[in-house]
TrEMBL record, chain A:
It comes from Segetibacter aerophilus. GO terms for cellular component: endomembrane system; plasma membrane. InterPro entries: NADH-Q_OxRdtase_suN/2, ND/Mrp_TM. The chain crosses the membrane at residues 64-83, 95-112, 148-172, 187-205, 261-280, 286-306, 313-332, 352-376, 388-407, 431-455. Residues 117-395 form the NADH:quinone oxidoreductase/Mrp antiporter transmembrane domain. This is NADH-quinone oxidoreductase subunit N. It comes from the Bacteria. Coiled coil: none annotated. NDH-1 shuttles electrons from NADH, via FMN and iron-sulfur (Fe-S) centers, to quinones in the respiratory chain. The immediate electron acceptor for the enzyme in this species is believed to be a menaquinone. Couples the redox reaction to proton translocation (for every two electrons transferred, four hydrogen ions are translocated across the cytoplasmic membrane), and thus conserves the redox energy in a proton gradient. Signal peptide: none annotated. It is found in: Cell membrane; Endomembrane system; Membrane. GO terms for molecular function: NADH dehydrogenase (quinone) (non-electrogenic) activity; NADH dehydrogenase (ubiquinone) activity; quinone binding. The keyword Cell membrane applies.
TrEMBL record, chain B:
It comes from Segetibacter aerophilus. GO terms for molecular function: NADH dehydrogenase (quinone) (non-electrogenic) activity; NADH dehydrogenase (ubiquinone) activity; quinone binding. This is NADH-quinone oxidoreductase subunit A. The gene is nuoA_2. It is an enzyme of class 7 (translocase). The chain crosses the membrane at residues 20-41, 72-93, 99-122. Belongs to the complex I subunit 3 family. The lineage of its organism: Bacteria, Pseudomonadati, Bacteroidota, Chitinophagia, Chitinophagales. PANTHER family: NADH-QUINONE OXIDOREDUCTASE SUBUNIT A (PTHR11058:SF22), NADH-UBIQUINONE OXIDOREDUCTASE CHAIN 3 (PTHR11058). NDH-1 is composed of 14 different subunits. Subunits NuoA, H, J, K, L, M, N constitute the membrane sector of the complex. It catalyses: a quinone + NADH + 5 H(+)(in) = a quinol + NAD(+) + 4 H(+)(out). It is a multi-pass membrane protein. The keyword Isomerase does not apply.
Length: 456, 131
C-alpha cells in the first residue's frame, strides 16, 4: 500500500516542483530522494509495518513476493534516475513532468504486483501504460518519437480492449472477478477458457511476447534512449509480475491446453527475439530485440509456476533490469548508436568498456554474473515440473545464440579501432556504473542475497 | 462475489442464448436490408454540388483542413475533465446522510486533489488565451 499511495503523491509533488523550481537539474535530486524514501518505506512494509491500514480485502493482497518485486522495481528506477537523469533533461522540455510520470508508472506497478481482483489488474495495467504513451513521445520535435508514441498508444489501447473483453468473459463464466479458479465438476467452460486466452493475449502484448511483439522494435527504437531504458526494464518486468500472479491464481480456468499454449509462445518469442537480434546493425534496435528474447526466458516462469519459478523471476527481474539500465545509460551518451559506434571504446574509456562488458555478459548469462543464475533458476524450475523437457534444451540453444550478438558489441569495443564520440561523463556516473556492475557480480555469486528477502 | 452463481448456472444453457442470437440476426439483417434497398431504389445523380461539404445549407467557404489553434482543444479537454467531477457528486449527494463524516472526508480529499490539479493547469498557463 505504501508504494501505491506514496508514489502517486510523489508524482504530484514532482508536477508542482515543475512549477515552483526552475532549476532543471534540481528535479533529478528531488526525484532521487523521493525514490529512496519510497524504497525504504516499501522495505519496511515488507518487514511487516505498513504506514497505512486500509482494508483491501478482495482487491489487493500484499505478500512478500509482490513487495519484493516492488523493491526491485523502485531500486532499478532509482539507479535509472541517478544514472540517466541528465539524459531525461535532454529528452524533452518538461523534465519535471517526465519524473512525475515515472512515479505514476511506479504506482501502477504497485497495483499489478499485488492484485487479487481482475478489476485491479485492469486499473494497474492502465495506470502503468498511459504515462508510457506520453513518455514515448516526450521529445515533441522528434518525428520518429511521435510515430512511436502514436503506434504504442493505438496498439496499447487495442490490447487493453482485448483484456477487458477477457475479463468480461471470465466474469460471465464464473460470476467473480477474483483471481481464483472457478471450475465446476472438473469441467472448464468455454467462456472461461476464452476469457483466459484473451487476457493472456493482452498481457503477452504488454510484455512483448511473440507473436504480439511487433510494436516493440519500432517503439523502443523511436522513443528517446532514456525512455526506452525505463520501458524495456522496469515496466516489462512488472508486466511479468502481473502475469505470474494471474497464471498462478487462475491456471485451472484456462483448460487442459495451457501448457502447450505457453510452450508455443515461449519458443516463438525466443526464436523471433534472438534470430532477429543477430542481424541488427543498430545497438539500440538490437537491445529492443534482445529484450524480446529475454522476455522469452522470463516466460519460462509462467510455464513452471512453482517456487523456483517465482524466485527465478525475481532474480531475472533484478539481473535484467540492472544490466539493461547500465547499457542504456552509456548508449544514451553515444552519438552513433550503431555497432561501429562502439569501435575502440576500450581505448578511450577503459573503465566504461569493462563495465559494459560485464553488463553484456550478464545478459548473455555467463557464470559469475547475475544473468547466469537467473537463467539457471528459470530452467531448473521447468525441469522440476517434469513436463516438456525439450523446452529446456531450446532455451539453452537460444541462450547460446544470444551470446553471439552480445559478444559482437564486446568485440567492437575491444578488438576494433575507431574514434569514439561520447558525451562527457562525470566521475559520479562512472562510480555509479561500477556500483551496478558490482551488484550484478554479487548477485551472480550469492543469488540468495536477494532471494532471502522473500522468506525473512 | 458468488451471489450470481445460481443465476449464471441457470442461464448457461445454450437455449437461453437463442434470443441473443435472434437479436444479432435481426440487427445485421436490418442494416443489410436498408443499405441494399437504398442502393437499389434510390436515384443516382452525381453532380459536383452533391460532392461538396454540407454546411447547414450555406455555401461552403474555404477548406475545412486548415490548421486550427490547439487552445480550443486544450480548453475543451480540460472542460470535460472538470465536468466529469460532477459525476462523483451525484451519488454522494444521494447518500449524503448515510455516508456521514467519513464520506465527507473522502469527498473533501477528492476535491482537494482536484483543486491541486486546477492550480497546476493555471500555473502552467494552460488557460491563457493570448500568447
Amino acid at each position: 500500500m505504501n508504494t501505491i499511495i506514496l508514489s502517486a503523491i510523489f508524482g504530484v509533488v514532482m508536477m508542482f516542483s515543475g512549477i515552483f523550481i526552475h532549476n532543471r537539474s534540481a528535479y533529478k535530486s528531488i526525484s532521487s530522494v523521493a525514490l529512496l524514501l519510497l524504497l525504504v518505506l516499501n522495505i519496511t512494509e515488507s518487514q511487516g509495518s505498513p504506514l497505512f491500514h486500509i482494508d483491501t480485502t478482495n482487491f489487493l493482497h500484499f505478500d512478500k513476493f509482490g513487495l519484493l518485486f516492488n523493491s526491485i522495481c523502485i531500486f532499478s528506477t532509482l539507479i535509472y534516475v541517478m544514472l540517466s537523469g541528465r539524459d531525461i533533461e535532454k529528452a524533452g522540455n518538461n523534465t519535471a513532468e517526465a519524473h512525475a510520470l515515472i512515479f505514476f508508472v511506479l504506482c501502477g506497478i504497485g497495483i499489478v504486483t499485488s492484485y487479487t481482483n481482475l478489476l485491479m489488474l485492469f486499473i494497474g495495467i492502465e495506470i502503468l501504460s498511459i504515462p508510457l504513451y506520453i513518455l514515448t513521445g516526450s521529445d515533441k520535435k522528434n518525428l520518429k518519437g511521435n510515430e512511436a508514441a502514436l503506434k504504442y498508444f493505438l496498439m496499447g489501447s487495442f490490447s487493453t480492449g482485448i483484456m477487458l473483453m477477457g475479463i468480461a468473459m471470465l466474469y460471465g463464466s464464473g460470476g467473480t472477478f477474483m483471481v481464483e479458479n472457478v471450475v465446476k465438476n472438473g469441467i472448464v467452460s468455454y467462456l472461461s477458457a476464452l476469457g483466459m486466452v484473451l487476457i493472456f493475449i493482452a498481457l503477452c502484448f504488454k510484455v512483448s511476447a511473440a507473436p504480439f511483439h511487433f510494436w516493440t522494435p519500432d517503439v523502443y527504437d523511436g522513443a528517446p534512449a532514456v525512455i526506452t531504458s525505463f520501458m524495456a526494464t522496469v515496466v516489462k518486468v512488472a508486466g511479468f509480475a502481473a502475469f505470474i500472479r494471474l497464471i498462478e491464481g487462475r491456471l485451472g480456468s484456462m483448460g487442459s491446453q495451457t501448457d502447450r499454449l505457453i510452450a508455443i509462445v515461449i519458443i516463438l518469442t525466443l526464436a523471433f527475439g534472438n534470430l532477429t537480434a543477430v542481424f541488427q546493425q543498430s545497438v539500440k534496435r538490437m537491445l529492443a530485440y534482445s529484450s524480446i528474447a529475454q522476455a522469452g526466458f522470463m516466460l519460462f516462469s509462467l510455464f513452471a509456476v512453482n517456487d523456483a519459478a517465482k524466485e527465478g523471476l525475481l532474480l531475472y527481474a533484478a539481473a535484467y533490469s540492472l544490466a539493461t539500465i547500465g547499457i542504456f545509460a552509456v548508449l544514451a551518451k553515444m552519438d552513433d548508436m550503431t555497432l561501429e559506434g562502439f569501435n575502440g571504446l576500450s581505448k578511450s574509456q577503459p573503465l566504461i568498456a569493462a563495465l559494459l562488458a560485464i553488463f553484456l555478459l550478464s545478459l548473455a548469462g555467463i557464470p559469475l554474473t547475475a544473468g547466469f543464475f537467473a537463467k539457471f533458476y528459470m530452467l531448473s524450475a521447468v525441469v522440476k515440473t517434469g513436463k516438456y523437457l525439450g523446452l529446456v534444451i531450446i532455451g539453452v540453444l537460444f541462450a547460446a545464440v544470444s551470446a553471439y550478438y552480445y559478444f559482437k558489441v564486446i568485440q567492437a569495443m575491444y578488438f576494433k579501432d575507431g574514434n569514439i564520440v561520447l558525451a562527457p561523463v562525470t566521475a559520479r556516473f562512472k562510480y555509479l556504473l561500477l556500483f551496478v556492475a558490482v551488484l550484478i557480480v554479487v548477485l551472480g555469486v550469492f543469488p540468495n542475497a536477494l532471494l532471502s528477502f522473500l522468506y525473512f | 462475489m458468488y451471489f450470481l452463481d445460481a443465476a449464471i448456472n441457470e442461464a448457461s444453457t445454450s437455449a437461453n442464448y437463442f434470443p441473443i442470437g435472434l437479436q444479432l440476426l435481426c440487427a445485421i439483417g436490418f442494416v443489410g436490408l436498408m443499405m441494399g434497398l437504398t442502393h437499389l431504389l434510390g436515384p443516382k445523380r452525381k453532380t459536383s454540388d452533391k460532392l461538396q461539404n454540407f454546411e447547414s445549407g450555406i455555401e461552403a467557404v474555404g477548406n475545412a483542413r486548415q490548421p486550427m489553434a490547439v487552445k480550443y482543444f486544450l480548453v475543451a479537454i480540460l472542460f470535460v475533465l472538470f465536468d466529469v467531477e460532477v459525476i462523483f457528486f451525484y451519488p454522494y449527494a444521494v447518500n449524503f446522510r448515510q455516508l456521514g463524516w467519513s464520506g465527507f472526508g473522502a469527498l473533501a480529499m477528492f476535491v482537494g486533489f482536484f483543486l491541486a490539479g486546477f492550480y497546476y493547469i493555471i500555473k502552467k498557463g494552460a488557460l491563457q488565451w493570448e500568447d
